[in-house]
Amino acid sequence: MKHRISTSLFATAALIVSLSVAAPARAATIQLGFLLDSSGSIGAGNWGIITAGLANAISANIPIGGPDIYEVSVVTFSSGTQTIVDHQLLDSNAAKAAAAAAVAAAPFLNENTNYEAGFEALQSVLTSSPNFSAGGLSYVNFATDGFPNEPGGTVAATAAGIAARDALVAAGI
User: How far apart (Å, rounded) are the C-alpha atoms in residues 119 and 148?
Assistant: First the structure.
């Protein structure tokens, strides 16, 4: 489990770094959405690893002062959802510190796993931003440890999660 979480955190940091290195020389707002599984199967210890890793990645790897501005949104999900960072522009060190602190303090929800609720909540957060554009400048990192089990059991929940993910993609994210 720790290896899978560490790999996911490494992938998150790599995504952030690659976006900053590969970004074309144009002024744009790039949305980074993070969807974090906070269900009981994650466990409180691993939840701490996930939140500390993302908080550190935000602090250390998202550039400020370049041609692009990054907007971060973080949603956690279990049986329900919680928006931890609501389309925060990281245009200063203070903004980065505030977003990282909010992620580090995110509560562990410790219930079932509902992908559908998570994808729907993140889509709402990203598309409600004044900076949203369906033009391909929104990216999502989805971190989970297993299959959904609600609503309606694993098979129904998986279908609902896929449909919600597909709706997020269809919205231009």
Answer: 12
User: pTM for this one?
Assistant: 0.85
Q: Which residues pair with 154 in a beta bridge?
A: none
Q: Which residue has the tokens 């690659």?
A: 18
DSSP 151: T
Query: How large is the average pLDDT for residues 144-161?
Result: 92
Q: What is the pLDDT of residues 49-89, one digit of tens each?
A: 999 999 999 999 999 988 899 999 999 999 999 999 999 99
Q: Measured between alpha carbons, how far is 104 from 150 in angstroms, rounded to an integer?
A: 26
**Closest of 10, 14, 32 to residue 22, by C-alpha:** 14
Sign of CA dihedral 73, 35, 58, 61: negative
